[in-house]
Amino acid sequence: MKRMGFLMVAAAAGLTLALAASASAQDAAETAAAPAVAAAAAVAADTAQAPIATKSGSISAPPAGKAQVVFWRPGTIMGAALGCTVRENEDTNEIARLGSGKYWVHVTDPGKHVFYTTGEATDKLNMELEPDETYFVKCAIGMGVMSGRAQVSPSDRATFAGRAKKMSLWQPKEKK
Q1: Residue 59 pLDDT grade (very low, low, confident, very high; cuts 50, 70, 90)
Q2: What are phi and psi of 98, to 5 degrees?
């Protein structure tokens, strides 16, 4: 009986020591990781503010109090002959007609927006835009029944920046 009691006390003491060592190791790891996390956050903040270089120039922060959406289409063979026409809020006026390897920066008021493309099917993207923020939207041409189908989807700064040097600004045609 005494032996069983001794084993239980020893096991409890061992568990307590193991838990204390684990907690101490976790605290040390968190303390060591804190500067790395802070440095990564600082780099991310600097990167977010740095202009993105493109073939046509660069993309900077939006004007104060405005939001901007960078619509872009990768330079791929898929659907190269088709344009990706982006419209907003069921309006018939186009924001951009992106060919392969093109982008357009749309500066707008913050708030709720619906961007869409039409073709074989309508593809919509609902967005809540914040002031002083830049958003990225990828326009891709997917497979359709009779022709390619334009699709708009959220993207991110890093993905766009990785392709930006090969992309040029879309130039709208002048209305006659």
Answers
A1: very high
A2: -90, 125
